[in-house]
Every structure is written in C-alpha cells, then in structure tokens.
Specification:
- By secondary structure, the protein is of the alpha+beta class.
- It is built from 11 helices and 6 strands.
- The chain has helices at residues 8-16, 38-55, 73-90, 101-113, 115-121, 123-126, 136-139, 142-150, 167-171, 197-201, 231-238; strands at 22-26, 63-67, 153-157, 177-180, 183-187, 209-213.
- A two-stranded parallel sheet has the order 1-2. Strands 3-6 form a two-stranded antiparallel sheet. It has a two-stranded antiparallel ribbon with strand order 4-5.
- The protein starts with 7 loop residues before the first helix and ends with a helix.
- It binds iron/sulfur cluster (SF4) (2 copies).
- The site of one iron/sulfur cluster has 13 residues, from helix 10.
C-alpha cells in the first residue's frame, strides 16, 4: 500500500528481469496518513540507487519517482507517459549504454547480494527527510558511492582462533558459513551478504571473525586442514 515498501531489492529484481525502466508512484510528500512518511524513505532509496546506476554505467533516468494523490489521475498519466517516452529513447537496458549483457547481469546479481550491506552503510541518510528538492542531488554523491564499493568490507574467520562453537553459523542469515562440529568454520565469500552478524556474534573470548576493508581476503583454509583436535579429547582417548 505504501511506496515505502518498495525495497532496493524490488528495483533490482525488475532490472534483472529485463525491465528497461522502473517507475514508482508515491503519495505527495508531507501528506502521509501515518507517522511513518514512507514516501521519504522511497525517495532516498531512489536517490541512492540512481547514483549506483551511474556508478555501474546505467542511465539513472531509467529509475523515476513521482509524488501524487490518488485523485490526480491526470498527473499519473502525464508522468507515466513521459517516463515511457524517455525509456523508449534510452533503448533496452544495458544495450542503450553499451554494456555487455553478461557483464550487466553479473553486476545486478552482485548488487542484489549486497543490498543489506548497502542499506546498513547508508542507514542514516536513508532516513533523511529532504524538504527541498534542491537538496536531492547532494544526498548521495558519486564520490561516496565510489568509496562505498572501493572500501567494501569482507568478513574472514581466523583459522588460528576459531573454536568451532558454531554460534556464527547458526546466526548467519545467508547460510554463508561452512560449519560442522569440530571443524574450523569458513565463510563462503560468494554467499556472504556482508551483514556483519558473525562479527558481532563470535564470542569475545575467541574473537575469531575479522573485518577486512581495502585488502584481499585470505584464501579459505583447505578442507583437509579444518579439523580441530581438542587437547582434552586427545588425553581422554589415550587414557
Ligand atoms: S557477514 Fe557473516 S553473518 Fe553476515 S552473511 Fe557474511 S558470513 Fe553470514
Ligand atoms: S563464532 Fe567464532 S569461534 Fe565460534 S565458530 Fe564462529 S568464528 Fe569460530
């Protein structure tokens, strides 16, 4: 019911499914019937994603938000017709920008995986309420978006410290941690959505999860070297 429900992931799904443009219609700003003002949230999400589109070489005009009341059918028709005309001029997604289709697909898939990270990093700005349209352009800058991707964090489990307590694996929302009893845990970087839950969840006495930024993630420990031999167990077995 509310444009505030239009998540970044929905926009990515539309583009990944081959849509050439995405139009979001929201209630007029400051006319929300509730205290939530979800339309401001959607506006911020659109401003953020338009910058990300620029970053990956897509024309940001393929994503548009307009505000109108339910009684303004004429405003809706004009806005949609204008948008459809614009998208037709831009041509098919990616092709219009000269981006290889496979490269585009993998960029969109990568962005979809990173939605939680992108939202957490931009949490504060996504909650803004910009009253003046002149401020829209400055909410997210190209430099910030470049920094976001350049300094992207990764999480890594230090094999020297991991005690295979399984806490991180149980809490990981993406099932990205390769886990088994008495096996040093390993993060599957392809599945990790960089939410940081494992970093927070690993007991401080172990402190095994490292947050890495701006440097490569060490390669995962080979499977045959992951078994932990407990000292107590060794003694127990001998006696
Ligand atoms: S950051 Fe940790 S908890 Fe979050 S998805 Fe990656 S491995 Fe899982
Ligand atoms: S919570 Fe920490 S010690 Fe426990 S399995 Fe995960 S990384 Fe290893």
């Amino acid at each position: 019911m509310c444009s505030g429900r239009v998540d970044l992931r929905f926009v990515l799904k539309a583009f990944s499914s081959g849509m050439d443009g995405v139009f979001i219609g929201g209630c007029r700003l400051n006319e929300c019937n509730y205290t939530t003002h979800g339309n401001y949230h959607t506006l911020n999400m659109v401003l953020l994603f338009r910058r990300i589109m620029e970053h990956i070489g897509l024309n940001p005009e393929r994503l548009k938000i307009e505000f109108m009341s339910g009684a303004e059918a004429n405003v809706f028709v004009e806005a949609v017709n204008g948008f459809v005309k614009k998208v037709r001029e831009l041509g098919p997604l990616g092709q219009g920008e000269g981006i290889n289709q496979n490269a585009l697909r993998s960029k969109l898939a990568e962005l979809t995986r990173l939605v939680p990270y992108i939202k957490v990093v931009n949490q504060e700005k996504l909650a803004s309420r910009l009253e003046n349209p002149d401020e829209y352009d400055g909410l997210f800058t190209s430099e910030e978006i470049e920094k976001l991707f350049r300094e992207m964090v990764s999480y890594y489990i230090d094999p020297e410290k991991c005690q295979a307590c399984m806490t991180c694996a149980r809490r990981c929302p993406a099932e990205a941690i390769i886990s088994a009893k008495n096996q040093i845990h390993v993060i599957d970087q392809e599945k990790c959505i960089k939410c940081g839950t494992c970093f927070e969840a690993c007991p401080p006495k172990f402190g095994s999860v490292r947050k890495i930024s701006g440097e490569p993630v060490p390669p995962p420990l080979p499977e045959e070297k992951r078994t932990i031999v407990r000292k107590g167990k060794e003694k127990g077995e001998k006696s």
